[in-house]
Amino acid sequence: MENNLLDSGKYKRADRFSIQSSRRWIQIGFTLITLWIGVEFAIFVNQVAAGKIPAIERPPGVEAFLPISALISLKYWLTTGILNTIHPAAAVLLLIFMTMAIFLKKGFCSWVCPFGLLSEFLTGIHKKIFDRQLKLPLWLDYPLRSLKYLLLFFFLWAVLVQMNVVDLEKFIYSPYNRIADIKMLYFFTGMSAMTFWVLAILVGLSLAIPYFWCRYLCPYGALLGALSWLSPFKIQRDAVSCIDCEKCTRVCPSNIKVHSSGTVISDECHACMQCVDICPVKDTLYFALPVKRKILSRKAYALVIAGIFIGGILIARLTGFWQNSIPADEYIYHLQHMDDPEYYHNRGEVPDYDRSSFEGNRNRKK
């Protein structure tokens, strides 16, 4: 049968456009951008902490690491029509990633997220150690996969259900939220022994069990996975031309049984296209609309996902919802007082504070 397919031209030929190498370069590019943003932000914070007006602008992209602030901002925006300018980039980036999921499955996880790249790197080491990708039994895999949805439910319940407009506004403009990005930086640069060992254990688990964080614990991935059910584009399989080699299933990082699916609807599908690339028979696996086989080519997918990301940021810049509105002298004030009680929170509840005491352009000195 394979010889007949080869003679008929139905087997794939070498493709100059290697989607996996291109995907990897896109991942590396986003990771390098993330690292550069981290370096810029560290320089900005160090200068502010020294009581100086910083020589560089605070990079708004750092707000990608503030998903709770982003979720609170989105609810406040939907409720009041006001998109606040404390951490506007956080809400914008969350909207961009959600848009990707709604139209392109969980492409954010396998094309953009630096943690996705780290997970793939650790999985590569895992395969070299064990000569294959170990999988947990289904009786253990399914309960563990529910953990990330339980975490997501906790955050959605706390923000979308329990917080009213007054609570939202109080949190958004609180001293804590104003420097949540700086507290996040200090969490990593001045991590405690407990934090270090928790991160080390997570890395170890991801090395022993491929994609442990992504598959079992990441609430961001859970949100995108839930939204990906709405995606009109999905991996489709032509059962007529399929030769049942099961290569697609073996290569799938999410352990989806692609070889037995007509349409891959799983919330774990990252649209990494590894199954499409490994399939030896031309046009047997493809990313498309289920109706009339409207195929989105691998090259077009890469362009669309980049276009959504770049376009969303460009719109935010043009409309003034990218850089925040906190002036440098206010940052200096906050850094001088960040150990005060009002700069903390308890499960989203912040202490009472005098908003007028730190808002506005001023140079305060102790």
Structural overview:
The chain is mainly α and 366 residues long. The protein is 58% helix and 3% strand. The protein folds into 2 domains: 17-232 and 318-341, no CATH class; 234-295, Alpha-Beta Plaits (2-Layer Sandwich). It has 17 helices and 3 strands. Strands 2-1-3 form a 3-stranded antiparallel beta sheet. The N and C termini lie far apart (82 Å). The model is unreliable at 1-8 and 361-366 (pLDDT under 50).
Q: What is the typical, i.e. mean, pLDDT?
A: 90
Shape: elongated
**Quaternary state of the chains:** single chain
Order of helices and strands: HHHHHHHHHHHHHEHEHEHH
Uncertain segments are: 1-8, 361-366
Instruction: Let me know the largest β-sheet.
Output: 3 strands, antiparallel
Structural class: mainly alpha
- How do the strands line up in the largest sheet? 2-1-3
State the share of residues found in helices, binned by percent.
55-70%
- Rg, Å, rounded: 23 Å
Proportion of residues in β-strands: under 5%
Give the CA-CA distance, first to last residue: 82 Å
- The helix tally amounts to 17
Q: In total, how many domains does the architecture comprise?
A: 2
Number of strands: 3
